[in-house]
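JOB MANIFEST
job_type = single_chain_structure
chain_count = 1
residues = 804
[input]
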Amino acid sequence: MDSLYRPEGVEERWQQTWEEEGHYEAHAERGGETFVIAHPPPNVTGELHMGHALQLALADAIVRWRRMQGYNTLFQPGYDHAGISTQNVVEKDLIRQGTSRQELGREAFEARVWEWLRLYGRTIMTQFRRIGASLDYRRERFTMDDDYVRAVMRFFVHLYRKEYIYRANRIINWCPLHETSLSDLELVHAEVDDKLAYFTYPFVEGEGGITIATARPATIPADVAVAVHPEDKRYKKFVGREVVVPYVERRVQVIADEDVDPEFGTGALKVTPGHDPLDFAIGRRHELPEPMVVGPDGKMNDQAGDLAGLTQEEAGERILAWAKERGLLDKLEPYRHSVALCERCESRIEPLISLQWWCSMEELKKPALEALRACRVRYHPESQHRFAIDSLENAPDWNISRQLWWGHQLPVWYCPDGHLTVEESEPEACAECGSTELRREEDVLDTWFSSALWPFATLGWPDDTLDLRTYYPGDLNTTAREIIRLWENRMIFSGLEIMGEIPFTDVIIHSTVLAPDGRRMSKSLGTGIDPLDVIGDHGADATRYGLLKMSSTQDVRFSYGAVEEGRKLANKLWNVSRLILTNAEGITPRLEPRDKEERWILARIDGVRGEVEAGFESFNFSQAVQALYRLTFDDFCDWYAEAIKPRLYVKDADALATALGALERLLKLLHPVLPHVTEEIWTNLPARETRLIVTPWLGEDRRFEADAEALERVQDAAAIFLRSGVAVELEADDRRIFEAKIRPHRIQVNGNADAERERLRKEIARAEGMLGNAEFTANAPPDVVEGEREKLARYRRELDALGG
């Protein structure tokens, strides 16, 4: 073994070796109990970001652990075609080349997308490998592969024939740059400074009017009513009267509706059903007309009369000037409010009424809700489980159509008479009238419609495959909380609808990793951190360790310190392994401990095995890695190795054999978190016939349980001595171990037992006060609370050692 451990080169070599030797492969014919994660497919144009890195660190630790436990493990990789994102990036490339998708036409544009993806897409799997993700890369799937497209078409036709899919005019979110509809979940919101304009709408018969406030004067030409709250005493007497809409001078009625907010503006609302979701709902209830004066490009359309072709800002200024001339503009005041933007291009969203395809959620969501309420599928943490249920209970009908060219084109054909034919592949003639002049629907499906099939379409559905029978349903999914409504819940109801089974039993909603200063990570803000840079500087193992330590039920700040701790741990492990192996030539590992330090390190390894298993099973990864750190750094390296050093140097065969056996067990425990350095050390152990990645996990070993407390007793005694100079009475074996540990640190320390006891009592009182505070235990991060509990236990032990 080299004197220093350098992860560069080693990690890449092991990644290639494991993959080439087939250790990541899942084989359905093997049988046995399965463990399956269908990993969230990244965008085909994507690059590894910190969210991906955390997601992979969590999932891969579980997968490697289950693989060592003997499960028939499938870690499924693949890509999402990412409709609007991919179209956006290719269109930008076309603009740089001096052309556009419109100039190319649809067929040529689709060919250009495929060519762009061939040259620049599908690179993120290489980055997944760099962090050590043990996915079965042979099984890589893409949501635009022919077989996957067939699955999407089958799903659409199935839902259509059950009358869950329908077409209707509804108000939707419209992106004027991409000229497509978007769901509420594909928007971001930003605070903007506007002007709130107060207009008077005169009564038709004269003598006054009603004043309304609006931030969008350009939409006034589409007003069809003025609404007030039915209990608003200021306006009750005006309900039923008519007023005149400024600029267009249209006569409209004053109506009463409970959705009106009496506290906003003047309490009177201009009703514009074509350009506002609230107004749309009011208009539908009162059967009002739905004119629209803003077009798909965000500019004023032909229905706007002489304002046609103007931007909304220009139209608004013209209306303001018109009203001011006639004394109908009461005032303008500053108005800061939140507006919706397209997540991809940050264009301001236009609410427009549009003919779209919808999926009814009324029946689809019922089995999924039952599964969530019964906890057959469980989100972690519990707060996200409650959110998942609430969001599904309130899920509106799903707008599944998008006005894009890249994606799954709807399997709908029209004949000249307007009849619809819905089939998985192009029909020869109209199903209703027999016409052979068919035109396909131009819309494509919402990207999330296809990704909802991911857990079973990747396994061969709609065909009845061995993979599908073996690996569905799966076990676990990991994702961010903003994907719960977009993807997780949709996979649940789709799996129940098509397969009759939930797609997985558990969903980990992982933290959002913030920049070290607490801001969101963003390239544009200069706060982004490239995980590949972190891996390059510290290694994949250290990065994985750091991310697992950071993981929490809350958002976390990225900590270089946690990653550096992982690097130091890998180096410490390397050095202690080298110490043992340098002296162990010709020795066969065995667990036949002779001395107390050997028995208690084996007891500690078994105890931490239980902690790691509990941490992984409860998805408390921070707890698991901190237990591994204490075991490796403190117990194994600083205590056990120091205690047995004299025996190692004289080639004591019994001590070396037990040390090798203990090291084997330690490496197995660490492998899911630090896979590369542990495999590298493993190959240096004598008589290694199998790779560590597929070596059986540790079984329970309670033979030395009675010695488990010995280590803590000696450690506490050393901590007291090094801190205060106070010596604690110890048994002979304990004294020998104690001396081995503190020998390098023997210094003159002032202090006495009474002062140390008083200090410990104060620390115990402080810790008990914190842990007795319900607000602290409820709101502090779980690892902080657990840390305080561990401190309290240590303080109490140390006080006991000093005789209370």
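[summary]
The two ends are 48 Å apart (CA to CA).
The longest strand covers residues 187-202.
exit_status = 0
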